[in-house]
Amino acid sequence: MTSPKQALAHPASSAEAAPGSQPGAARGAHGHGTPPEGKSPWRSRLYRWDMKASPYVFIAPFFVIFGAFSLIPLLYTVWYSLHDVQLSSLDTQTWAGLDNYQNLLSSDFFWNALKNTFTIGVISTVPQLMAAIGLAHLLNYRLRGSTVWRVVMLTPYATSVAAATLVFTLLYSWDGGMVNWLLDFVGIDPINWRESDWGSQFAVSSIVIWRWTGYNALIYLAAMQAIPADLYESAAIDGANRWQQFIHVTVPQLRPTILFTVVVSTIGATQLFGEPLLFGGVSGSKGGSEHQYQTLGLYMYDQGWIIGNLGKASAIAWSMFLILLIVAAINLLVTRRLRKTQ
Amino acid sequence: MRTTTRRSHRLLALAAVAALTTGVLAGCAGDSDSDDSSGSGNNSGGGKTTLTVGTFGVFGYKQAGLYDEYTKLHPDITIKENVTTRTDVYWPKVLTRLQAGSGTDDIQAIEVGNITEAVQTQGSKFVDLGKEVDKSQWLDWKNAQATTADGKLIGLGTDIGPMAICYRKDLFEKAGLETDRTKLAAQWKGDWNKYVAVGKEYMKKAPSGTKFVDSASSVYNAVLNGESERYYDKSGKVIWDKSNGVKNAWDVAMSVATSNMSAKLKQFDKPWDQGYANASFATVACPAWMIGYIQEKSGEAGKGKWDVAAAPTAGNWGGAFIGVPTAGKHQKEAIALAKWLTAPEQQAKVFAKQASFPSAPSAYSTLKAAPATTEFFSNAPITQIFSDAAKTIPAQVFGVKDQPINTALTDIGILQVEQKGKSPDQGWDAATNEIKDVLGQ
Predict the structure, then answer these.
(1) Where do the segments described as Disordered lie (chain B) (predicted)?
(2) Is A286 on the interface with B (CB under 8 A)?
């Protein structure tokens, strides 16, 4: 099994070098070419100014919108989180210092939500990515009507959260739902999917898995198709079967892509909101009678918009932001580690 | 008191979309609409004023053709209704707009569960309608709910929710119980425990796959809505854990939750809707506005099988108000429209279409239920039953956090006992913790 590994090292390094210097730099030099001589200095100054300023003007709309709709609200949330603010009286805010945060740290509901966010995140992300990579591998074979399969893969992702969740809610309804009906066939007692602890979490994750697996599969597929065919050929010559090829060629080659999907899925899992909210139906923001599937997003929504305690909701929002930063930092560390071993 | 969601869950799909996306999108749409209206009013030269009416769920004004009628009477007015399906999405949006002083509709509906919050915190943001109307048209307690401490009437009563018991005559017959509505009502008159006793009787010979009630929470709400004491006292102090009304309602609900007579459904959930279609429960406490809902969800199959009997105690479940925000651009026209929409004649028209029960007693003599409804409910004299109930409804005091407290008791406390098999004490403790969180204690 040495040859695939050797072959592996080569394209990876070349791929990393590619976005680098030579061709791009050459083009850059071309573009920056000095203005034709003999023209007035005014025009040349204008030209140079244009060259310098235009890029900023072109990217400005994003930053203006980002500032107006992300940055300012973000900072305003900090302000709110340090005050006692009720939804019904936004104009009377009393300074609360870190009370809201202290309140959170001593609140069972907050820790429960954090725990749920984590467990639901794990049981939805891990199977989802594993299934996606398997599906992508299958799609990567020569198939009749491959485009059709790929489009079908993406259909769940194109479905709205609301529609998907509604259907799943019906499937999982404890009295007359299809899932319990099937379980009954196998001789298993009906499960109260919405109120049982692990059952509800499983149900919520299944919605997430159903929606996102195809999306991730297509990302993996794109990456797989960039793997040079000669790697597989040489592996085949060395006597590797399909499974061995998958393990020793495909997966190592996909490593950067896998990391990318892990990061994106983790962020998605931390912000999980729509699925559990709608799965809960009426009073869905509670996440079940024992808050058994109340995620941080739901807890924030419940505090802010149902109970009307905007100060505390803002504190939750900021805690979520901090948690995301920590998650991102861990991801970064892991990525570095992996790069090094590579 | 599932007022959060009353009327609203006609299309759960829409509800869901509203919760996630339309909430935001509709907000944008609403803003641009009000821009349009001022544009057409001032510039286009037609002299038309567009009034916007912000409502939640199905209010029945459009359905009863009231907007068309009004614009015929007033050719210079056009009316646009901005509907948000769920109140829990609708109300926060209204609150923020009221306080921002922009983006509100010319007329804004207020659910009874939110009226205290509106009265206590948003009083200055609404026009005082007390000077504009003859207040004696409405039930006194209805006016009182919308009156601020300094005597301002910020909302005109639309409907109220006098309550009866809707029951499946065919299932009762199969279970060998009394099916006559008057005799049945006499069996449980005055005491909800007698209603539970009928339920125990029913369960002895219950047709397979059916239960006596839809949920323990709905029984809780039904009992509580007939009690004069709820979660707050008159001075605005929270007394939920000492309230006799709450204790009584809780005890009745517990006897339902622990005795296998409940289908364990959550009201206004999709499976609850299916419960109507599959006839999986035999009775449901039905405020007048739920009549149309039952009819729609049961479909043709339920026709003539439902009947209506008086509830053990009369209660009020739900109801709404419409107010005119001071931030509106066309206040004068909006006040005129609000007066007209809530006048007794118009309330009677809404009843004929939606069975939403008028809050103006002078409309009672003219009430007629739609023929289809009468037929559906076995020719039960529903106008009579609901009018009788309306006359004995006790005046109830609401509080600022009434809705979240109620949700904590029903969707945490009772649900844990009913669906997770916890003891009533454990359920009560869980609700207590939740309410402490709600009140920030």
Answers:
(1) 420-441
(2) yes
